[in-house]
Amino acid sequence: MKVIGITGPSGAGKTTLSQIVKREFKAFVINADEVAKALNTNPKTEYFKKIVELFGNEILKDDGSLNRKQIASLIYKNETKRKELNSLTFKYVVDDISSQIEKIRLQNEYDFIVIDVPLLYEAKMEKICDKVIAVVAEDDEKISRICERDKIDKEMAKQRLKIQNNNEFFVKKADFVIHNDGTIDNLVNSLKEIMIKI
Predict the structure, then answer these.
(1) CB 13 within 8 A of CB 135
(2) Longest Cα separation, the chain
(3) pTM to 2 decimals?
């Protein structure tokens, strides 16, 4: 059972690609953002408590949940806080994903385990992957997708991209690269060509 890492900048199409792998191949998909959300939605988890320690009670809503928009606004303006949050996320999310991978291996129901991780290299998760596929796209395409997905304006989307690694970073590091500027059919065909080699 091979582990495939899927990474790339925001708006490039990582999650779309992960879902195609799940549909077209016998693959179990783990989405790092969803893992992080599950962990930081539960006030009883250590991860949740550490986030509140880092930012203070002002990032809590009246119902005691995290104000994600406020946290996003803070980390896009403050590099130190962003790095500290990433460090926390790497610790707890990587542990959770590693645990999930072990359980899935024991089930022996799948041919592939796909981990969709935006900060794959920063979290050093490429070490647990047999192969890494990077998904990249032109900036205009990424900005358009981010705006549509997150319901934000172009300037905010541009700010997000500015603090992320560019396409070249992923192209240099990954085993395979998919340029996702075309149709879904193009994406599927590019993926199938790669999966033959994995």
Answers:
(1) yes
(2) 51
(3) 0.87
